[in-house]
Amino acid sequence: MINQPLIRFLESIKTDLINSLQAKGKIATGQTANQTTIEGDGDKARLQLPGYMQTLETGRAPTGKNAVAGDPPMVERIKQWCQAKGIPDKAAWAVKKSIDKNGYKGTPGILSEPLGNENIQLRLNQQTDKMADAVVQNITDLMESIRKTTIPTQST
Predict the structure, then answer these.
(1) Measuring CA to CA, which residue among 80, 108, 112, 84 is closest to residue 96?
(2) pLDDT value for 1
(3) CA nearest 27: which of 60, 61, 50?
């Protein structure tokens, strides 16, 4: 059974992340938001972010001399971004060369604000009582199950 208060907590953090991307003008194709998912298994759950998400906040250095091409290649991802922004495809090569030469600056706060202690505490406090209730219910159910298997019922 997935812990619903935990899922609600993670959903609120996911929403905060997506709102942060939108507020800072970093949603073009919607790919990053779509790749931000919540995976649950039993009483465990986690928020999965795309591997490149940290780069949106911290930026990246210029491309090194012996860099390995990505999959898909950077210019293809930039073409998708250009299309979503209404920029001609031919600009993608110039954007790629600029990133190769100068790197990418990043946008401070895009992750650190929604994943910061203050926001985590706010969202967690909203779910604490519900989480505690779920834990108590799990313990009660476990104790009831143990009682049924270890204490014989009396027949009249």
Answers:
(1) 80
(2) 56
(3) 50
Distance (Å, whole) CA 13 – CA 115? 7
Q: Taking a C-beta distance cutoff of 8 angstroms, is the pair 10, 105 a contact?
A: no
The strand pairing partners of 44, in sequence order, are: 41
Amino acid occupying residue 144: E
> Would you kindly state where each structural domain of the chain is located, as residue ranges?
1-59+106-156, 60-104
Of residues 7, 9, 14, 5, the one with CA closest to residue 114: 14
d(CA 102, CA 122): 38
Helix, strand, or coil (residue 121): helix
Q: What is the pLDDT of residue 52?
A: 87
Per this entry, what is the length of the chain? Answer: 156
Predicted TM-score of the model (pTM) = 0.73
141-149 contacts, C-beta under 8 A, 24 or more apart: none
* Longest alpha-carbon distance in the chain: 87
Residue 70 backbone phi and psi in degrees, to 5:
-80, 175
Segments of the chain scoring below 70 in pLDDT: 1-2, 152-156
Structure tokens, 22: 């939108």
